[in-house]
Amino acid sequence: MKSHPHRDLVLINAAGFLRSLGVGLMGVVLGIYLFRVGLSSSMIGLVIAAGLGGSALATIIVTFAADRLGRRRSLLFLSLLTGIGGLALALSPALGVLLTMVFIGMLNGTGTDRSASFALDQAIIPGVAPDSKRTWNLAWYNVLLDGGGSLGALAAGLPLFLQHRLSFSLLSSYRVVFFGYSGLCLIVATLYAVLSPAVEIKNPPAPAKMSAGTTPENKRILGKLTALFSLDAFGGGFLTDALVAYWFFRRFGVGEHDLGLVFFAVHVLNACSHLGAAWLARRIGLVNTMVFTHLPSSLFLMAVPFAPSFKWAVLLFLCREALVEMDVPTRQSYVAAIVKPSERTYASGITNLARNVFWAVGSAVAGFLMQVFTFSAPLLIGGGAKVTYDLLLYRSFRALKPPEETP
Asked: What is d(CA 98, CA 90) in angstroms, rounded to the nearest whole number?
């Protein structure tokens, strides 16, 4: 098979769009569906955490084995496994079986695609274009991810549509949607199956030697970034779309259809913000863009529980979402810039692994705190953790510039 970098970029973007379509859907309906079938807030948090835990394990495997097993083969296998998460919800097994299937299927309740496939995509995309286009290519990739997520959130009204138009029971309507989610995963697998050899790394290092060529200084930098990203992800685990949608559902009595519209708007704002981030980064730098947009977004979030009505809560939440994703393409570009091309799978995997692990921890803790402490605890604690992350990131990395920002 011939190498076609531009074609590969199109395929990766299309696969990411469709994968994110399913993630956006799950982000809205997962918590509400589990509540409808009788699970408590703590159990809902545990199911979300199990899916994120599976994603963390998959990211470990991708980090140390994908380059040797083959990036294309790894992406194909991950996409097939993801379909198991939809089957788990559609079949409604006992809780122990459900948790196992959700773990294997890496079911994502965050509403945002941060999977092992996402980490591997990040390692591939910087290699198909020069450094001058790296941030923009990652920005467009994230635009398509959030575009897919917005349509997926809009599809959250499908169970109610099927119930009213086709006279299905509500739970049967949900199951039809979950089977559709699994079918979507098969389409994503097909797209990855036709990638060219251009996505592969020639003569990849053995897992034990992956970081051997990295300088001690770069190892220290990567370690510090990983620790900071872990703190950010811990806060993000309190703020998965599934938990936030569940919070709006219980706090204001808002149904799936209206929440689907809210999260559609959320992902549209996220998508637009990625392009804004790439534009802003060229003018003020990657680190400044990450911090100066992310910090105010966290303050908007912490104000949401104090809103007097659903309209004010949504307004504050949308202000947050217009800014919160601007650190995503800039963060990805920054990590790719500080390592060699052959180390990008390792760097992307390590940083995304930390994020997945701490998302899972945050989600499990959030469900518990919602039940036993205060229902709005996730928004306050999650926002506070993210504010701390922003301040520490700026203090540690404001002077370390990527190559394109160095005279």
From this structure: 10
Please provide residue 65's backbone torsions phi and psi, each rounded to the nearest 5 degrees. -130, -20
Structure tokens that stand for 58 in this block = 């998959």
What six digits make up the tokens of 135? 């941030």
Pair 269, 322: CB distance under 8 Å:
yes
Residues 381-400 have a mean pLDDT of 91
Residue type (1 letter), 363: S
- Residue 320: exposed, middle, or buried by beta-carbon count in 10 A (0-12, 13-18, 19+)? buried
Q: Which tens digits make up the pLDDT trace of 229-259?
A: 999 988 888 887 777 888 888 888 887 778 8
pTM of the model: 0.71
**Of the candidates 399, 401, 395, 391, which has an alpha carbon nearest to the alpha carbon of residue 282?**
401
Query: What letter would DSSP give residue 205?
Result: P
Burial environment of residue 163 by CB neighbours within 10 A (0 to 12, 13 to 18, 19 or more): middle
pLDDT at 185 exceeding the cut of 90: yes
Per the listing, tokens 């637009």 go with 272
Cβ burial 251-278 (10 Å sphere, 16+ → b, else e): eeebebebbbbbbbbbbbbbbbbbbbbb
pLDDT the model gives residue 1:
47
How far is 16 from 151, CA to CA, in rounded Å? 13
Tokens, residue 149: 């997520």
Residue 189 has pLDDT above 90, yes or no: yes
Contact criterion met (CB below 8 Å) for 19 and 117: yes
Closest CA to 246 of 22, 44, 93: 44
In the three-class reduction of DSSP (H, G, I as helix; E, B as strand; rest coil), residue 106 is classed as: coil
Helix, strand, coil percentages, rounded to 5, for the chain: 85, 0, 15
Helix, coil or strand: residue 194: coil
The yes-or-no verdict on residue 212 having pLDDT over 80 is no
Nearest C-alpha neighbor of 363 from the set 42, 133, 73, 93: 42
Mean pLDDT of the chain: 86
Residues constituting the chain: 407
Distance, CA of 402 to CA of 334 (rounded, Å): 7
Residue 121 contacts residue 141 (beta carbons within 8 Å): yes
What integer is the mean pLDDT of 18-45? 89
Does the pLDDT of residue 55 top 70, yes or no? yes
Burial group, residue 12, by CB count within 10 angstroms (0-12, 13-18, 19+): buried
